[in-house]
Write a structure and sequence with these properties.
alpha/beta; globular; Spore Coat Polysaccharide Biosynthesis Protein SpsA, Chain A
């Protein structure tokens, strides 16, 4: 069996929402603790790491790791890929799962399917498509990530998805859970409004610690107009940030991603 390691990429610094991963998304449950508990329920994940920086401001994440009994790796503040590769080498991992700490509602229920697709088709990279921003975990082989590191500027690994989800260089796979495209919604937490929405999701879902929270349930809440969930939909306008300070219009970016999807191994979960 392949050794699978989940890497939760997290830091405490944030210009728009400082200490966001440490804020309580539910009474006495921080956002990163909520995420760790969810990832822990995923079958076939052998280890969970908090991947953070060596900077003093992130010392508190050591306490989180100890309390939640997960491992922690502290490395480069800027190079996400360095942290993931170091964890992969330490654990002799075959597959790495990239999850960012500000995505508490990562659709963990699809990770086993992503892993199965990766192994069955011998793929390098697998993601979920047409789900809200912040919903997909990214699965990649350690070997593919090593190759990606040789091809890219590691200081640009904030944009790792753009380099790994590239069928021209890697064997990519995508899972489409729903017939409808929910890509205009967002479950990521980047601002105070996003954080309030995250708390609202748990409130309206009547969530309690230990309960599962499936992504379909979240989408049902989003489509229920009686539920006040601020900032749940993004405007398909403005520019998308790219490496080296470049930008692309939202329409051009979506067209580029659609082209990548067409060149990937596709699995649909609906009839």
């Amino acid at each position: 069996m392949a050794k699978v390691v989940a890497c939760i990429i997290a830091r405490t610094v944030s210009k728009r929402l400082p200490l966001k991963v440490l804020r309580d998304i539910y009474p006495s449950v921080s956002m990163i603790e909520f995420l760790i508990d969810r990832v822990r329920t995923v079958k076939h994940v052998d280890e969970i790491y908090i991947c953070t920086s060596k900077e003093q401001v992130d010392d508190i994440l050591e306490d989180v790791a100890n309390r939640k009994q997960v491992k922690i790796y502290r490395g480069s503040a800027d190079m996400v890929i360095e942290r993931m590769l170091a964890v992969g080498k330490l654990e002799q991992a075959d597959v790495l799962i990239r999850i960012t700490g500000d995505n508490p509602f990562t659709a963990i229920e699809y990770i086993p399917l992503q892993l199965s697709l990766m192994q069955e088709k011998q793929l390098d990279y697998v993601r979920v498509i047409d789900v809200p921003i912040g919903a997909t975990a990214e699965l990649m082989t350690y070997d593919a990530l090593m190759r990606c590191n040789e091809m890219m500027d590691p200081t640009m690994s904030e944009y790792l998805m753009l380099y790994m989800f590239d069928p021209a260089n890697f064997k990519c796979g995508v899972i489409k859970p729903f017939k409808e495209d929910f890509g205009s919604y967002s479950v990521t937490v980047d601002t105070y409004i996003d954080f309030e929405r995250a708390k609202g999701i748990l409130k309206y879902a009547n969530w309690k610690p230990g309960q599962e929270l499936m992504h379909k349930h979240i989408l049902d809440l989003f489509q229920d107009q009686s539920k006040e969930l601020p900032g749940k939909q993004i405007k398909s306008e403005g520019d998308i940030k790219l490496p080296y300070g470049k930008t692309m219009t939202f329409a051009a970016f979506k067209n580029d991603i659609d082209n990548r999807i067409r060149q990937s191994e596709l699995v649909q979960l609906y009839e």
